[in-house]
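User: quick one, fold this
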Amino acid sequence: MAFLRRTTPAEPDPEPTPKVSSAPSGPSKKARPTPTRKEAEAARRQRVTRTLTKKEARAEASRAARANRMKTMSLRESVPEKALLRDYIDARFSIGELLLPSLVIILALAFLNQVIPAVTLISTVLMYVFIIVVIVDVLWMWRGFKQVLAKRLPNAPTRGLLMYGMNRSIQIRRFRMPPPRIKRGDAF
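Assistant:
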């Protein structure tokens, strides 16, 4: 029934009484006349839409994107299970940290195919053996972490933590994001 018109006129609102301020009001004048609507709108638009050079616009967009990335990453990384996994991985040495530098060296040795063909075969076999060793190390790390997780955070979900831990363990320690909070061998 809210859409029907009222048959009786509504009571008029009482006029608000002006508030009297206790501060003494002396004669004060404005420094300039009130701006016209056109001037006020132009000033507002100028404040809202700044004109930037291409370089400034790129820098501003880059700054905003970085701030947004850092904000979403901090929200995503603040989960207690992930923080515990990061500390667990950072406290131990992982053979996976050597994976990327060793793959670069193995790739460089593969370019010696024309000069020494046997080196390419040996480096390829070494690459696959090294990858298998890294996978075994990650599985060993995962097994130990699940025990620590069960002790410290019982009933915590483990979904996605294995891949997160594997990615963190194969990164070079210096380039990990977020950076390690603890040193190798420290208690976590």
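User: anything notable?
Assistant: The chain has six helices and no strands.
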